[in-house]
Amino acid sequence: MLTIDEAFRKFKTRLELNDREQKNASARHNEIRDHIRLNFELDDDFLTGSYKRYTKTKPLKDVDIFCVLAKTEKHYRDEHPEKVLKAFEKALSTKYGASAVSVQRRSVTVDFGVVVDAEDKTDYRVVSMDVVPAFVSGKDYEIPDKQSGKWIKTNPKIHAEKRLRHTKRMVANGRGSFVC
Known about the structure:
The chain is of the alpha+beta class. The protein has helices spanning 4-15, 19-39, 49-52, 81-96, 156-172; strands spanning 42-48, 63-69, 101-103, 108-111, 128-137, 140-145, 150-154. It has a single domain (9-172), classed as Beta Polymerase, domain 2 (2-Layer Sandwich), CATH 3.30.460. The protein is globular and about 65 Å long.
């Protein structure tokens, strides 16, 4: 029988990403970012969401890549939001195949065809990544929303900072745990 500490460590290792998974994820998101840069002019691109915050658990899917389009791509901002999503889909399909790439509400998903078994094992591989096109809007960004047909303001960098401050505040007040 396992002790509580042993059981927790076992449970924790089933959730945390190991070195092989981290390397695969890094290679995949860099490969996607490089490919997007071949097809669009970007001012910036960065990771967002739980993977960026080191809170992503297995299986590794829905890694978010935020792609800030340059002013030379501004014509997409003047169109229906679905147009830029379709353009990203087309560009990514040339590398990964049409069946592996799909348009979501606010992003384009690249599915790597990794099958997740009953124990959430993926042989250390990334299942999917989401690519979000964006434009700078003052201190924020605007991302396409195909469902509403509008551009939605957001700022994932500020969201991450607020989440970190909130977590630290909860730990300081004894209402949560914080792992670095």
